[in-house]
Design a protein that fits this description.
7 strands; single chain; alpha/beta; seven-stranded mixed beta sheet; Rossmann fold
């Protein structure tokens, strides 16, 4: 059966009706509002009573029981910008396979936090096999699982991972994680885990939205704002060097490709600072943090 990933309003509605318990009328309403910019995750945030940008039990409940992230993800994925992320990722993985003299379906690929499974399906459509991990037992995980089963991919082209710790043994050639880190309470540990997942020379394809803490994104954590514009350096501390980043997409650095090194060196840090696109935002962030620290210190002394 040919894999169909929905990109039109009606196809997205049908996908949600087919693979969730939501009634069609509610789905049509929420998808339409999401397309108009009235976020479905904001709807869930109000329903579950979360404190925006602060992780707690209520936000965890939203992740497990809400449909908002499914709707938001499907609508966003239908945009040309978002599809370009995975298209470029496919190109980079193909190049990695070519350099490694490996067949595409021989690569060990982990989709980390793929949510609805769109990116996993796109990779399978391009000849890859994938391991999928998201929050087991969540509505999102169930939605993706039903989609994989519909195309008879489970145990064949898609392997579901239920034990996160089983991934931490340097067995993967490729780890993909798009728009996940900004949701986590400890993204530094998550970056270290990605390094543990990769074999030496393996690649991680990453996007993040640390700086996008706004009303439209209530699940992006305020505590992660301090990491904005620092991602290449955060990954280097865990032994992964920024090797390539997209300059085709509207948001530069989406996606980024990191290579796991055998042993990082000072020259790797220097290579990052040589790139204006990396150095300037990083230094601007540092200056902003310094000004804020001085302002707080002066306020305490007055």
């Amino acid at each position: 059966m040919e894999i169909q990933i929905p990109v039109s309003y009606q196809d997205i509605v049908n996908e949600l009706v087919n693979f969730t318990e939501l009634p069609r009328q509610e789905v049509e309403h929420r998808v339409w509002k999401q397309a108009l910019g009235d976020g479905s995750v904001k709807h869930d945030a109000e329903h579950f009573g979360i404190t925006p940008h602060v992780y707690d039990d209520k936000m965890e409940q939203l992740y497990k029981e809400g449909y908002g992230l499914i709707i938001e993800t499907l609508v966003f994925w239908a945009t040309n910008e978002r599809q370009l992320w995975i298209q470029q990722a496919v190109e980079r993985i193909r190049l990695y396979a070519q350099k490694s003299d490996r067949a595409l379906d021989e690569l060990a690929i982990l989709m980390l936090g793929d949510g609805t499974g769109n990116d996993s399906l796109e990779l399978v459509r391009n000849g890859f096999k994938v391991n999928y991990f998201d929050i087991p037992g969540s509505k999102t995980y169930d939605f993706a699982t039903k989609r994989f089963a519909h195309y008879d991919l489970l145990g064949n082209s898609v392997n579901l991972i239920s034990d996160f710790d089983s991934c931490l043994s340097s067995q993967y050639d490729v780890v993909l994680s798009f728009e996940v880190l900004e949701h986590l309470t400890d993204p530094i540990s998550a970056i270290r885990d990605i390094s543990l997942m990769l074999r030496i020379g393996g690649i991680a394809l990453i996007t993040e939205a640390f700086g996008a803490v706004s009303d439209n994104f209530p699940t992006h954590l305020q505590s992660n704002l301090k990491f904005a514009n620092k991602t290449p350096f955060l990954f280097l501390k865990s032994g992964m060097l920024l090797y390539w980043y997209s300059q085709k997409t509207f948001f530069k650095f989406k996606p980024m490709e990191f290579t796991k090194l055998e042993k990082p060196s000072i020259m790797n840090s220097i290579s990052l600072f040589r790139d204006d696109n990396i150095r300037k935002p990083y230094l601007d962030k540092k200056k902003s943090e310094l000004k804020l620290a001085v302002k707080k210190m002066l306020a305490m002394q007055s």
